[in-house]
Amino acid sequence: MTSDDAEPTVPTPSADPTRILPAESPAASQTPAAPPSSTAPLPSPGVDAAYRQSNGPTTNQRSVTQRSFGRPQQQEPSFRPVYPGQAWPTQRPAYQPSYTPPPPPDWHNQQARAYTPDPPQKGNRIIAIAAAVALIIGIIAGAGAAATVVAIDNNNNPVAEQPSPPVGTGADPKIRSGSVSAVASTLLPSVVQLKVEGSDNTNATGSGFVIDNAGHILTNNHVVASAAQGGSIQVLSEKGKTLTARLVGRSPVYDLAVVQVTGLDAPSVQFGRSDLAIVGQDVVAIGSPLGLAGTVTSGIISAKNRPVTTGDEASGETSFISALQTDAAINPGNSGGPLVDMNARVIGVNSAIATVRGSSEQSGNIGLGFAIPIDQARRTAQQLIATGKASYPVIGAQVDMQFEGGARVSRVEPASPALRAGLRVGDVITSINNVAVASAEELIVAIRTHQPGESVRLVYERGGRARSVTVTLGQQTG
Predict the structure, then answer these.
(1) Which residue has the higher pLDDT, 28 or 96?
(2) Which of 26, 221, 399, 421 has its CB 3.0 to 4.6 Å from that of 407, i.e. a possible disulfide?
(3) String of b and e for 435-461 (b: at least 16 CB within 10 Å)?
(4) How far apart are CA 300 and CA 295, in angstroms?
(5) What is the pTM assigned to this prediction?
(6) Closest alpha carbon to 373 in 429, 325, 302
(7) pLDDT of the residue at 107
(8) Reduced to 3 states, what is the DSSP secondary structure of residue 391?
(9) Catalytic residue positions?
(10) What is the average pLDDT across 422-451?
(11) Contacts of 345 by beta carbon, 8 Å cutoff, 6+ apart
(12) pLDDT tens readout for residues 231-258
């Protein structure tokens, strides 16, 4: 077998690793070193002298290498830890079990508990809590405040309870702004009860409210009408004081009147705007229904511009109102009282309630009450205070109260606005300022929402043909 077929070997170094053969002995230089006997000691680990060559000029330099092929050396099997965290193998027992139980599920918790410090003593914890409480109380109290002592000992004594503030004895009650109670507390001092005795021994009871600092009270005309020709008007204030009032003026057309009381200790109301009222908004009615002074009811605005006729047709004092309809409970005695919004501003004067057809007696509340819009009532009250009378607009024509499907003209007054506009008897007015008119009441109510001197546009039918005309409203007193 040739040397190329033999397994590659590495020569074993001689016993004297530092020996160098002489240069002049060629035979010695070409003869390889004899292999050591089997009894020769093995070289100590880490000694590489057999692989170093002399750097002298006479040394036969030769490198010893190992080829990259052949059988690999026997390797130890890789180390596998038996339990988590094992860094090195332990001595294997004679019997190696085939199943190694896993560590306990709370192994990490056991390790964590091993490094958890002992809890502080209970007494120290209570002292710390007491110190924190005292610090918070000191911050809240501030400099100059009364000191508060909290006593806590090691016997688990409870903290001394602080006295609670008194309830219900404050200067002002806890009333939510915009609530019915807030509106009532604001308006009740301004609402009064009226008791009227006529010269013919007729009696009437109603309500009113203070409108200025001079003691003027606004109410309904039908409440004080029996005292117009003599009689007395008594005013009962919210504080229970009874005073005598005088009649300043009244307007049967608008069913409004003003009386005045000297020495009345009551605040005046705040006026709102009825034209800004919307259907569905909350309202409160205040008055003296059935003689029960200071009664408060609540509801909503059910409708606007509702044509309502009130008064006594026999006496000729009939009122036509473009009313605010409300479902707030209104009963006899509420007349003349205020209808207010949730900001305690008066938007109407309660004047009438609906009755069931065919009923001969006056009924109570059925959820249909009507109030004069405050925009009109305020203008009328100013006129009554200034002159004792109030004016209202007219077109100078009479209409048929029984006709339906419009307002049919039954009479045209001489030198009236209607005559100057060209209206004739038999013309049927169907709209005013683009608002449909279905009856004579609706036309009268619509006209009285304006003021004398204003111009309105009327659409009417004559001989089956529609026409239109502009009329400047005249003026009458009543």
Answers:
(1) 96
(2) 399
(3) eebebbbbbbbbbbbeeeeeebebbbb
(4) 17
(5) 0.63
(6) 325
(7) 60
(8) strand
(9) 222, 255, 335
(10) 93
(11) 269, 270, 271, 272
(12) 899 999 998 899 999 999 999 999 999 9
Between strands 407-412 and 428-432, the pairing is antiparallel
**Is there a contact between 307 and 262 (Cβ–Cβ < 8 Å)?**
no
CA distance 394 to 373: 19
Cα first-last separation, the chain: 152
| pLDDT tier for residue 78 given thresholds of 50, 70 and 90 | low
Task: State both tokens at 417.
Answer: 């606005």
CA distance 264 to 262: 6
Compute the chain's Rg from CA coordinates: 57
CA dist list (Å): 16 to 44, 50, 269, 335, 370: 13, 9, 131, 141, 136
255 by DSSP, 3-state: which? coil
How far is Cα 157 from Cα 148, in angstroms, rounded to an integer?
17
Closest CA to 371 of 326, 422, 424: 326
Show the CA angle centred on residue 445, arms to residues 329 and 420, nearest 5°: 175
Specify which residues 391 forms β-bridges with.
477
Contact yes or no for 303/280 (Cβ under 8 A): no
Query: Mean pLDDT for the chain?
Result: 76
pLDDT in tens, 289-332: 988 999 999 999 999 999 988 776 556 678 888 999 999 999 99
Amino acid letter at 320? Answer: F
CB neighbours of 322 closer than 8 A, spacing ≥ 6?
A: 305, 306, 307, 308, 373, 376, 445, 446, 448, 449
Instruction: Locate 333 and state its tokens.
Output: 């005695």
Cβ neighbours of residue 247 under 8 Å, at least 6 residues apart? Answer: 224, 227, 228, 233, 257, 258, 259
